[in-house]
Amino acid sequence: MTRTESWGGVQNAVADDGVRAPAPVEPVSPRTPEAVTEPALVAPTLIARLAQPFRRSTGAGRRGRLWRGAVLLVCVIAGLMLGTAHSFSAGKDIRPRNIELSGLIRNAEDEVAQARDAATDLQAQIDQVAGDDVSPQVSQALGVGAKLEPAVGLTPVVGPGLIISMTDAPRDSDGNYPAGANPDDLVVHQQDVQSVVNALWAGGAEAMMIMDQRVIATSAVRCIGNTLLLMGRAYSPPFVISAIGPAPAMTSAIDAEPGVRLFQQYVDKFNLGFEIKQTDSVTLPAYDGLVRMTSAHEETK
Hints:
disordered N terminus, flat, 7 helices, about 40% helix, alpha+beta, about 300 residues
């Protein structure tokens, strides 16, 4: 049996022997110029030799003139190349440097947090300016929007359901993973989380939360190394998924989901963490982020 893992349109195949095939990886580092050093000074003796008058002779003399001319041409070309590189670098080091992915993630999270705070402040200013002095059409639209808030996850909910926890394989006492194991086989991937999420929806889940964020129609989880990126925030394992709905039906859907069944093989082989807990009370907060729509249409009855 071959495992096919899919998330956001990307599929990964896994062979029958229980080893995940490596996922396609897109290059993340931009092309950078090669290292450039400062131009070396031409040896005075070489300049002196090049400055000597050409001898009017044949044989060895002619070969000497050709050699000196070739050396002069190479020096001119090298000087042009070094000058161009110096102009391009603007006096800075243009050698390629390693970029830490964790630093990029932290910077992106900070930018998202700043944008979210700015949007919240602007919305508060809009609400203050508008007040209660709105037209009947606006009031009607606001009323329709308020009725739709529970369906789209903009209100908190409480009810019975399931809590699922997924985590990477543990290390031994020396901090090492099992010998001979592929590192990709020892971590929870985004397609593993997506398989559980799909199974919960198929089993009748009414509301869901991944980590501390409410899942809505525009939510998307992406894998960055061994972390998950959800709505601009990065999370490390264990990954916790909470869902409100009929627990028996959702459990059966999880057991029948092909992606979950394949993930269970790696749980059994490499001891990854996978726990399903049934509870009588799951509390899910309202989604507090921005709601972005690319298109919409009005349904008529």
